[in-house]
Amino acid sequence: MKKKEDLNRLKVVLAEKKCTNKWLAGKLNRDQATISKWCTNTAQPPLETLISISKLLNIDIKELINNHE
Predict the structure, then answer these.
(1) Calpha distance 5→48 (Å, rounded)
(2) Across the 69 residues of the chain, what is the mean pLDDT of every consecutive 10-residue run?
(3) DSSP 8-class letter at 65
(4) C-alpha angle 53-3-54 in degrees, rounded to nearest 5
(5) What is the pTM of this model?
(6) Model pLDDT, residue 3
(7) Where do the H-state alpha helices sit in 1-69?
(8) How far apart are CA 51 and CA 59, in angstroms?
């Protein structure tokens, strides 16, 4: 069985910034279950949403994306 690759670092970045899924869900007007799916890499947020998240967390968008070189 092939291991699923994590495409985003949202869970890690939220922890580093001491923010919760609930906080992010409120800021983005999204369901907390949606944020949870993004954090577990079950689903991926659209690019526009990643841009919004990077602005909310005051980080470069590149910090939200795993680099698989």
Answers:
(1) 22
(2) 75 96 98 97 96 97 81
(3) B
(4) 10
(5) 0.87
(6) 55
(7) 10-16, 21-28, 32-39, 47-56
(8) 10
